[in-house]
Write a structure and sequence with these properties.
51% of the residues lie in helices and 15% in strands. With 335 residues, it is α/β, with parallel strands linked by helices. The strands form two sheets. It has a six-stranded parallel β-sheet with strand order 3-2-1-4-5-6, sandwiched between helices. Strands 7-10-8-9 form a four-stranded antiparallel β-sheet.
């Protein structure tokens, strides 16, 4: 296109004895089919312009088409790359809707370094999520196609955080059909929708409006407890799952409590479904146990790391029974 444009401009300068600016101006209005006037062309110039009309317009049209195809190809390319990343995920979470509630869920999942995919139908929040680095699928969360693109069959859980109760119900039904064993947590805007969403298959239903009222009431009636549990207090209430290759398997609560005195064990949920509240120190950690703990944030993080496979800190197992004078101390530390 540049060769045609500047070649025609210099040719016009030679034929018509025009300045470069005027020749280039005439060439551009001809190639772009604007055509204000012929600028007083001579017979030779008009004959030469006929060649420009065919060659120049064809070249310009081809160039503009290639630019458009490149832009569309770039859009399709990053969508393909993103879909490949989503297809590699296993045991991830799906967040439907990235509004106020959905964004908060994504932030916590990012903090916990858990993989997740966002489904968003609106273009503006979709672009914001994409620019922030999230894996995102554009579409209605209640559509099977969008759920399949997000990897619903391989997902561990799904959060229905759209601000429409009817869409959350439809999404819950679709997710339950595509993956019967998936964990479903749904948002409800009206109290009357809570029962319907549970009947659709959601394990947990959260009503932000009701939760806000409960938080305010808790601050009024139990301010010290609310301050203790609120984020940023330095303490965390968390659950830790014991991996089969974790060095904690076989260790007792007393052993770990003696080494991490800033951890308090609230409950243990065993694989068979039994839950032990305030477990004793002689209880041992088993594979796939879910341990509810409370303590200082860094201590809770260390235990979460120890519970994973291949943890760096290997605790020696107890080979002898604890002495009598240490039993009470270990029990207190474990609790």
């Amino acid at each position: 296109m540049l060769v045609v444009m500047f070649g025609r401009a210099f040719s016009t300068m030679s034929i018509e004895q025009w300045s470069f600016e005027k020749a280039l101006y005439f060439t551009l209005i001809t190639i772009t089919t604007v055509g204000y006037s012929d600028e007083g062309l001579s017979p030779s110039g008009k004959a030469f312009t006929l060649i420009l009309l065919g060659l120049g317009i064809a070249t310009a049209t081809y160039a503009f088409t290639q630019l458009i195809q490149a832009a569309i190809g770039y859009q399709l390319d990053w969508r393909r790359r993103m879909q490949k990343e989503i297809d590699r995920l296993r045991d991830h979470f799906i967040v439907c809707g990235i509004g106020r509630v959905g964004r908060a869920v994504c932030d916590r999942l990012e903090e916990a370094r858990l993989p997740f995919v966002v489904i968003e139908k609106d273009s503006e929040p979709f672009e914001r999520a994409r620019r922030s680095g999230c894996l995102v699928v554009q579409g209605m969360a209640s559509d099977d196609e969008a759920l399949i693109q997000a990897g619903i069959e391989r997902a561990r859980g799904i959060v229905c955080a759209v601000d429409s109760d009817s869409e959350n119900i439809a999404t819950t039904l679709s997710a339950k059909e595509l993956n019967p064993g998936i964990l479903i947590i749904s948002r409800a805007n009206r109290e009357s929708s809570i029962r319907k969403i549970r009947r659709a298959g959601a394990m947990h239903v959260v009503a932000p409006s009701l939760k806000g009222g409960e938080d305010i009431a808790s601050l009024l009636t139990r301010p010290n407890l609310a301050q203790f549990l609120r984020q940023g207090s330095g303490y965390e209430l968390d659950e830790v799952t014991i991996d089969s290759r974790s060095p904690l398997v076989g260790q007792t609560l007393s052993d770990y409590g003696a080494r991490e005195p800033r951890i308090v064990f609230v409950a243990i949920k065993r694989v068979n479904g039994d839950t032990q509240i305030r477990p004793f120190g002689h209880e041992a950690f088993h594979t796939d146990d879910i341990v509810i703990v409370v303590g200082e944030a860094d201590a809770v993080s260390r235990m979460a790391a120890d519970a994973k496979a291949g943890a760096a800190r290997i605790w020696p197992k107890r080979t002898t029974a604890p002495s009598a004078d240490r039993t009470v101390e270990n029990e207190v530390a474990a609790r």
